[in-house]
Design goal:
alpha/beta; Aspartate Aminotransferase, domain 2; Aspartate Aminotransferase, domain 1; 2 domains
Length: 385
Amino acid sequence: MTKLLSKPVNPNFSSGPCAKRPGWTTSALDACPVGRSHRSAVGKLRLADAISLSREILGIPKDWRMGIVPASDTGAVEMALWSLLGQRGVDMLAWESFGKGWVTDVVKQLALDDVRVIEAGYGELPDLQQVDCSRDVVFTWNGTTSGVRVPDADWIADDRTGLTICDATSATFAMNLPWRKLDVVTYSWQKVMGGEGAHGVLILSPRAVERLESYAPAWPLPKIFRLTKGGKLIDGIFKGETINTPSMLAVEDALDGLRWAQSIGGLSALIERTERNAAAIDAWVSRTAWADYLATEPRCRSTTSVCLRISDERVTEMGESDQRALVKRMTTMLDNEGAAYDIGAYRDAPPGLRIWAGATVETSDLELLFPWLEWAFEAALNETP
């Protein structure tokens, strides 16, 4: 197949950190108060603005709390697990790498006695009807490493007595989240909004705050996990008074992304851009003989982290190590050509491709990517030892 000439304007299709918003340059950071304390008036204002703009765009209920926390989405999830679990039994849902990681933390690190693990393999969703909402439940809304998401929240009881703890890092700003069905939601700036890493966001419902103020875990909590003092929520965390020192450059970058989101029409526009991108990938997959989704059920397919497997018989007959080698050749070729960066499947997932389709990606860049995928597949297959 002849090498192509036209390439994506922005070849960044990584699933995290993700592509910057269209038109982004470092000039977006020119107003950043570098060298200033995050506790200064200007620093506090920037942090408070990041929270208030996020609340406005996401439509978070007024009685919910939202805070910026350390260590990306991982830190936000860990804070929730270590601070909230243990009062009652917990159902852990896992169908991809990160969900399985939360299971490991709860079972092996927290070593809780009453844990039910409800899991499924890559490409599938567990039986959600098994969930008991009188217990706490921990789940990812969108499985970034499998391309499988929950289709809705109908399986969560309105009159639940347990808490729902949702890792929504690759869903927030790209999918409609039913806030009244969720009690704890976490995400990071580096996903749908294309921000920088190292910072997470923790969102708490009134029910979660009540749990924090009425229940003390049996284990010690490190400083960066502590959300209460003297049995009361540390309110400053949810007003921009962060637990540890944040990067003001990262905060400025997050603000730039949020202002862009506002300028194009807010959450509905972000979702529309994401779904348009996912539709473009779907159209390409439907006409491409060698590519298919890892997710088996169409309504459970992610619209952000789109995970694909190579379905060509010449490849499926190979062993897994040879399949991984083929994908590695493909992604290396694409990287060397500057046509696509970082689109190999996650290391724990089955061999294949993972293409980010979130709101900061332009559909026109995806359309330019598809011929390059076809070129790389044929070229890599012809190099098979």
